[in-house]
C-alpha cells in the first residue's frame, strides 16, 4: 500500500485521471472529494465489499424454483422512483445527502410516470 | 391491468416474446464482484412473476434472481448520486428501471439486496449496480416476504 500524508486541501492523483482531495478534517473523520471519470466507480470500501459478497452469494448456475410472494406486499400501484438529477454545486466534492424533501404521492393507475420523488 | 412488474418487464425487453427473443442489457461496469461480465439478458417466466432472471450471456454464465422492489417494499426511494445519474444518462426518474438481486436460501430465509440496486435506463438498456447516497437506510439482506 502506498502511504502518503496530505494536509487539508492537498490532493493526490491516481492514474492521471482520478483526484482525491482532503476537504476537511473533523476529529477522526476525514472528508474527501473524489474526481473521477464517470465510468470509474468509487465506493466506500465496506459497502462495496458487502455488496460484492452478497452478489457472489446470489449468483447461481442453476435456476431453482422461486418463492411465492406474500400478496399483501405486492402493491401494483407504487412506481419505482429514482431521484431526479441534482444540481452540481461543487465539482471537487462528492455530493452529500440533502435533507429529506416531501415525496410526491404515487399515482394509483400510472405505471412509473409519477412525479419525481426526492429524498 | 398488468402489475408493475409486468410493465417493467415489457419495457426492459424489446419484444413481447421475452423467453424467445430477450433483449441484451449492457452493464459497462458489470456487477460488483463480477466486473468483467458486461452483457446480460432478462428471462421471464409468467409463472415466476414478479421474479425475473438476470442471465449472463458470457462466462461464467451465471444468473441472478431479481425482483422489482415494489414487490418487496412499499416505498423504495434510492437516491442516486450525480455521477450515477450522469453515467446512466437519466433525464427523468421515468427513465430508470430498478431491480434488486435476490439471494435464495433454503428454508424461508431468502433475502433481497435493497442497498445495491441495479438501475437501468429503459431507453438505452444500459445499467449499473449503484450504491445510493442513502444506502445505509436500506437493508443488504431484506427478508423476502415469501409465503411459507
Give a brief description.
Chain A has 119 residues and is an alpha+beta fold. In chain A, 12% of the residues lie in helices and 17% in strands.
Describe the structure in your own words:
The complex is a heterodimer of chains A (119) and B (148). Chain A has 119 residues and is an alpha+beta fold. Chain A has a domain at 1-50. Chain A has 1 helix and 3 strands, in the order βββα. In chain A, strands 1-2-3 form a 3-stranded antiparallel β-sheet, with no helix packed on it. The radius of gyration of chain A is 21 Å and the shape is elongated. Chain B is of the alpha+beta class and 148 residues long. Chain B has a single domain (4-143), classed as BH3618-like. Chain B contains 2 helices and 9 strands. In chain B, strands 1, 2, 3, 4, 5, 6, 7, 8 and 9 form a 9-stranded antiparallel β-sheet that branches. In chain B, β2 (39-43) and β3 form a beta hairpin. The longest helix of chain B is centred in the N-terminal third of the chain and has 9 residues, at 4-12. Chain B is globular, with a radius of gyration of 14 Å. Chain B starts with a helix and ends in a 5-residue tail after the last strand. The model of chain B is unreliable at 1-22 (pLDDT under 50). The interface between A and B is large, with 58 and 73 residues.
SSE layout and pairing:
The complex is a heterodimer of chains A (119) and B (148).
Chain A: E1 11-14, E2 18-26, E3 29-35, H1 45-58
Chain B: H1 4-12, E1 24-26, E2 39-43, E3 52-56, E4 63-67, H2 82-88, E5 96-103, E6 111-112, E7 118-121, E8 127-129, E9 142-143
Antiparallel strand pairs in B: 1-2, 2-3, 3-4, 4-5, 5-6, 5-7, 6-9, 7-8
Amino acid at each position: 500500500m502506498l502511504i502518503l500524508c496530505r494536509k487539508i486541501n492537498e490532493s493526490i492523483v491516481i492514474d492521471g485521471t482520478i483526484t482525491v482531495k482532503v476537504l476537511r478534517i473533523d476529529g477522526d473523520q476525514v472528508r474527501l472529494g473524489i474526481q473521477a471519470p464517470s465510468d470509474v466507480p468509487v465506493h466506500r470500501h465496506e459497502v462495496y465489499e458487502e455488496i460484492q459478497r452478497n452478489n457472489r452469494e446470489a449468483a447461481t448456475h442453476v435456476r431453482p424454483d422461486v418463492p411465492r410472494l406474500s400478496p399483501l406486499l405486492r402493491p401494483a400501484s407504487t412506481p419505482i422512483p429514482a431521484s431526479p438529477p441534482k444540481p452540481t454545486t461543487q465539482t471537487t466534492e462528492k455530493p452529500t445527502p440533502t435533507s429529506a424533501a416531501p415525496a410526491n404521492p404515487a399515482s394509483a393507475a400510472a405505471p412509473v410516470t409519477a412525479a419525481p420523488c426526492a429524498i | 391491468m398488468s402489475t408493475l412488474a409486468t410493465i417493467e418487464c415489457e419495457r426492459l425487453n424489446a419484444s413481447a416474446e421475452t423467453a424467445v427473443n430477450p433483449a441484451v442489457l449492457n452493464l459497462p461496469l458489470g456487477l460488483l464482484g463480477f466486473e468483467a461480465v458486461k452483457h446480460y439478458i432478462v428471462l421471464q417466466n409468467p409463472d415466476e412473476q414478479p421474479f425475473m432472471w438476470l442471465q449472463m450471456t458470457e462466462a461464467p454464465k451465471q444468473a441472478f434472481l431479481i425482483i422489482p422492489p415494489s414487490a418487496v417494499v412499499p416505498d423504495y426511494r434510492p437516491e442516486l448520486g450525480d455521477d450515477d445519474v450522469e453515467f446512466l444518462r437519466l433525464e427523468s426518474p421515468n427513465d430508470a428501471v430498478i431491480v434488486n438481486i435476490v439471494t435464495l436460501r433454503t428454508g424461508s430465509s431468502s433475502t433481497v439486496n435493497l442497498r445495491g440496486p441495479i438501475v437501468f435506463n429503459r431507453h438505452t438498456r444500459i445499467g449499473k449496480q449503484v450504491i445510493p447516497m442513502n444506502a445505509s437506510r436500506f437493508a443488504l439482506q431484506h427478508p423476502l416476504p415469501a409465503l411459507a
